[in-house]
């Protein structure tokens, strides 16, 4: 039975992104639930570096992510996947030592991350503690040294899929796009459109590009393709704004 579950935001690729509160939580946890290696070995390596740097001595308990059932419709597929992950956590933690269990969450647990939704499926429901982390958005704006919003302007955060399906959201001023494997910025009317793009943000492999979409779109798409091939995976985020 898990009484306390701590979700520790670890930032997006640098051990330096973990806050002092995060380090303390990792030190105080009795067990750490860690996904077993997948195709993204660099990420598994980073997680271990973070635990080492934090001086965490807790027992590491591995679990495997299930495979999504592609035959189900999207919502049902995600729900079934979350159910199965919760089930696996519970099974993996059967013999865990008493005390808080920590989970390392990429970026910040509030942003395009389902760890909290999965945690709510545990029975009995543990007390949840969330330790915030640096998001990919913060890593992007810091890397480019730009403000996130214009003066008094709104910010819209969306996904590549939504940008493709719905186009530029009505009333958007600054648009941040995540989870886009298809460079959907290329579908937009390029007039006055500027992009600030970043991949592997925060890590030693960070790549940045910026400029007018019509000038840099091809370069970004090619750079992205090549980097993805070299690493076997890629995570990228971009910010769009129409400049007059
Ligand atoms: C499932 S979401 C997780 C977001 C995370 N919780 C956060 O706070 O940034 C994954 C998406 O975050 C973005 N992302 C995460 N890490 C990144 C990185 N190091 N560089 C660029 N984008 C990143 C990408 O858009 C990626 O598709």
Summarize, please.
It catalyses: precorrin-5 + S-adenosyl-L-methionine + H2O = precorrin-6A + acetate + S-adenosyl-L-homocysteine + 2 H(+). With 244 residues, this protein is of the alpha/beta class.
Overview features:
244 residues; alpha/beta; Cobalt-precorrin-4 Transmethylase, domain 1; Methyltransferase, Cobalt-precorrin-4 Transmethylase, Domain 2; 2 domains; five-stranded parallel beta sheet; five-stranded mixed beta sheet; 7 helices; 10 strands; 34% helix; globular; binds S-adenosylmethionine
In DSSP terms (H or I, runs of 4 or more residues), the helix count works out at: 7
Oligomeric organization of the protein chains: single chain
Count structural domains: 2
**Main β-sheet description:** 5 strands, parallel
Kindly, what is the distance between the CA atoms of the first and last residues, rounded to a whole number of angstroms? 57 Å
Describe how the helices and strands are arranged.
Layout: E1 4-9, H1 20-28, E2 31-35, H2 41-54, E3 59-63, H3 74-92, E4 101-105, H4 115-119, E5 127-131, H5 136-144, E6 155-159, H6 160-166, E7 174-178, E8 193-199, E9 207-212, H7 213-231, E10 236-242
The protein binds S-adenosylmethionine (SAM).
